[in-house]
Request: fold
Amino acid sequence: MARPTRAELDLSALRHNAALAQSLASKSKLVAVVKANGYGHGAVDVARALEPQVPALAVACIEEALTLRDAGITAPILLLEGFFTPDEIDLAAEHEFWLMVENDFHLHSLEASTPAKPLRVWLKVDSGMHRLGVAPAQARDFHQRLSACAAVDANITLCTHFACADDVNSTRTTEQLAEFDRACNGLPGPRSAANSPGVIAWPDSHRDWIRPGFMLYGSSPMVHPHPNADSLRPVMTLKSAVIGLRTVPVGETAGYGDTWRAERPSTLATVCIGYGDGYPRTATNGTPVLVKGQRALLAGRVSMDMITVDVTDIPGVALGDEVILWGQGLPLAEVAPHCSTIGYELTTRMPARTPRMVIVG
Ligand SMILES: Cc1ncc(COP(=O)(O)O)c(C=O)c1O
Reply:
């Protein structure tokens, strides 16, 4: 007998989503973003499943990349935030990690380094998101100095990142691409711009390398429904079960703080999942869940280990019945707005306490 709370991972869905991303950008190469423990799905499982299908992976930092190498992953791994201390350069050369170069510190450290072999670098240009990257006016100078740097492989990829590509009505993506193209005009080397929204909705952004993350895990990153995202399949299904049942008369409340009150005689199911298991406390009354495959609504505040659900309209609910919090049959994109967040955060916050179970190899 084990606590039934678990995150089931469908790795065939992951491979399907990667194939979809590749088919949308058929001329581009794909670097699969598996940072933050594969957006909470388990980076090693995700990388193992994708490695035969993609030429490269990306993580945020060298610690995440080393975890993958320790697990036997051999694909090149791009470090999206570059390096934080110069001693990471030698380690990166040794392990075939590709470095994002985004500032003076990165450039000067590479110029002062003598790694065993030249490193592949991606030069990040800040085309308008103003988070990381060199200013467009600096791109040419950075490119020249990197090209002349003995520590750097001659094949330098030029890259940028979008702020608003999830919104097809925004003009920002076209503006950012134009800024990127102006900054890189005439410079040699591959180009990369598209994150998941870029892959789905902005074909002009596909260029030589696409960098999808979130879409690989099977949810749409778009603000509005988009046909190219319709056939994504969820990789994570968060499941638990009913461990308590009671009926309450009109006027009774449920959970901490009495935030839900029965407006009719109601049947409440207690489900053993809470914010300690990655189900967010920000989920409000009325957040949808599936009980026995049928829709029910969250009733009352999320506790650390439990929630209560109004199952009055579902006949015959019994102890042990399966509950789905998101995933198959209940899109993450539908749940996230009830929790004042986005799907990215919901899966990425999955704690170690919740067992991850690979259900399809
Ligand atoms: C530089 C960079 N490229 C690609 C991605 C992947 O983005 P997404 O998960 O929206 O596909 C990220 C994610 O934050 C990123 O920082």
